[in-house]
Automatic annotation (TrEMBL):
One term under GO cellular component: plasma membrane
Membrane topology, from the record: Single-pass membrane protein
Purpose: Peptidoglycan polymerase that catalyzes glycan chain elongation from lipid-linked precursors.
GO biological process: cell wall organization; peptidoglycan biosynthetic process; regulation of cell shape
Entry keyword set: Cell inner membrane, Cell membrane, Cell shape, Cell wall biogenesis/degradation, Glycosyltransferase, Membrane, Peptidoglycan synthesis, Transferase, Transmembrane, Transmembrane helix
Protein EC: 2.4.99.28
Spans through the membrane: none
Name the UniProt record assigns to this protein: Biosynthetic peptidoglycan transglycosylase
PANTHER family: BIOSYNTHETIC PEPTIDOGLYCAN TRANSGLYCOSYLASE, MONOFUNCTIONAL BIOSYNTHETIC PEPTIDOGLYCAN TRANSGLYCOSYLASE
Ligase is among the record's keywords: no
Pfam families on file: Transgly
Similarity remark: Belongs to the glycosyltransferase 51 family.
Species the sequence originates in: Rheinheimera nanhaiensis E407-8
């Protein structure tokens, strides 16, 4: 290799790691800012074909059963793991290698990272970024902030983001007034928010709501209390 080529490669390497470092610092600055400031929007809102309806609400103003319903439905180990459920990821990768879809591995931390910063769809690249960002959220934000942002940016219908907008749209009331059953109804919408309506449940979704309510009782309505202090 000539001295000239080595010089070019060295220059490219210098520029590359400087660019990566700059991106990481910008990401850290963004996460630190969003630790204290409500996100004005999210990646999913910006990519949505529907006009977004979004209204921020503080988690401290919500009844305990509302975040509990989402945890019971989506990620019952939320208070134990560190952002990524490695056992679930391993199982999902095995299914992917066998020709199945990549599914069933996302924690609430990962879903928050995905909805806030990434894009829809399933791929190994996005899953990898999602996992790395979830770990970063756990370090920078902590559990309470992750759950608060998740409650506010999760999609509950076509262009309906967050529990406040969803509560107003479906039940005509503020999220702080939702009953346990209504909270469970919102929770079962999350896997397919553009195809499900919490006010028009199929027999399967009725059973799913009952299952979520049972899980909430088993976990206990004070399950999240230590984390939410």
């Amino acid at each position: 290799m000539t001295q000239h080529k080595r010089g070019i490669l060295g220059w490219l390497w210098f520029i590359s790691w400087r660019a990566v470092l700059a991106l990481l610092l910008l990401l850290l600055l963004l996460l630190v800012t969003l630790r204290f400031v409500p996100p004005p929007t999210s990646a999913f809102m910006l990519q949505s074909p529907y006009p977004p309806r979004y209204q921020w609400v503080n988690i401290d103003s919500l009844p305990a059963h509302l975040p509990l319903a989402l945890v019971a439905s989506e990620d019952q180990r939320f208070v134990q793991h560190y952002g990524v459920d490695f056992a679930a990821i391993s199982k999902a990768l095995e299914q992917y290698d066998d020709g199945g879809g990549l599914r069933g591995a996302s924690t609430i931390s990962q879903q928050t990272a995905k909805n806030l910063l990434l894009w829809p769809g399933r791929s190994l690249v996005r899953k990898g970024l999602e996992a790395g960002l979830a770990l970063s959220l756990e370090l920078v934000w902590g559990k309470k902030r992750i759950l608060e942002v998740y409650l506010n940016i999760a999609e509950f219908g076509k262009g309906i983001y967050g529990v406040e907008a969803a509560s107003q749209h479906y039940f005509g009331k503020a999220a702080r007034h939702l009953t346990v059953n209504q909270a469970a109804r919102l929770a079962v919408v999350l896997p397919s928010p553009r195809k499900r309506d919490p006010t028009q449940l199929t027999p399967y979704l009725e059973q799913r709501v009952q299952w979520v309510e049972r899980q909430m009782r088993q976990l206990g309505y004070g399950y999240l209390a230590p984390m939410l202090k």
